[in-house]
Amino acid sequence: MHIQRASDTLLCQVFPVTLKGQARTWFYALPSRTIPSFIKLAKLFVEQFVANRRIAKNSSHLSGIRQNEGESLKEYFQRFSTEARQIPEVDPELLRGVFLRGLRPGPFYSALMRDTVHSYADLIHRVEAQISADEAINAHRKQFEQINGKHKGAPGMNNSFSQQKKHGKNNLPHRSPSPRWEPR
Prior knowledge:
The chain is mostly helical. The protein is built from eight helices and no strands.
């Protein structure tokens, strides 16, 4: 049987089988015998669910993407890349400029401004290198903190210069202020 040539009655009976979730709930909530034709049913359906359709994004969508406070470079880059992939045939130079405008000021941004980024590919390379460096630094910091954490309670460690300085103590012998040279 060809559904295209089917009667309105048959189309209205087959239609709910194609629905799921909210669309199915909406359909079964319609008062019975209030829709005179399938064309009217289709129109009501579109009016009800037009807001749920996916709107194609264009390059202007990217200009609203900014690195949030506390968001790592890696998180920002992943979020930006995900959005950029949804835009067909976007110009790489536009991506470079928009990414840089959304990047929070800081040492990495300063480095990018000092040493000109020539292309989006160059930017990606430098971002990935910075992300790798950040991850290595964080791993080293954690390892360093674990090692130092193990020695905090060790005898004699409380007399270290850094601990004394931290607590405002200075156990160095007191010397009277004297000039380094003697006038003649």
